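**Sequence with structure:**
===
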Amino acid sequence: GCSGRIPEGNGRFQTTAGRPGPDGISGLCRKDMVTGDFCFSSVSETKAGTADKPDAWDIISQMTIGWNLGNSLDSVYWNDHPTPQQSATAWNNPEPNRELFQTVKNLGFNTVRIPVTWYQHMEYNSATDHYDIDEDWMTYVKNTVNYAYDLEMFVIINVHHENWINVDYFNDTNLQRAKKILKDVWEQISAEFADYDYHLIFE
């Protein structure tokens, strides 16, 4: 079951730490307070946390206070296929850099959330039936993550202001397309960060 509420700002979603079930899988539960839908994100597949493979409760206990890098990598440019620099500064923030995250850590934060918008930086490849993320954007996201990760901070990344999610309503067609993009995007993100440890968290 899910317990131990972690409040979120807009009040719609309730995120809770999921206790390990009989199969030993720990993770985070997320409930949409409007639709009542639940989803579960696996954090660990071990029955008990270890030093190199902590379970969800171990990870949460190590996370103290967090800081959100908003209006940066999640910004939406006024046309598609902007450069990474154009995206990151589209909403009038400077580009993130190592000094920024060092300052955040020096102020006592050990967790940062980096919202990321992907749709302006990918193309559908009809030959492979796959949505491909631009290499330049993936590299930019990874470099930004590394600024915090290299400081041994916890880093949370996600998919944010996506036009394939922000629709008036879902029907059979756009729902299947959204599922396809979601799968393709997270497969690429997972592959890119496959060597990172539990300090990197996918939201």
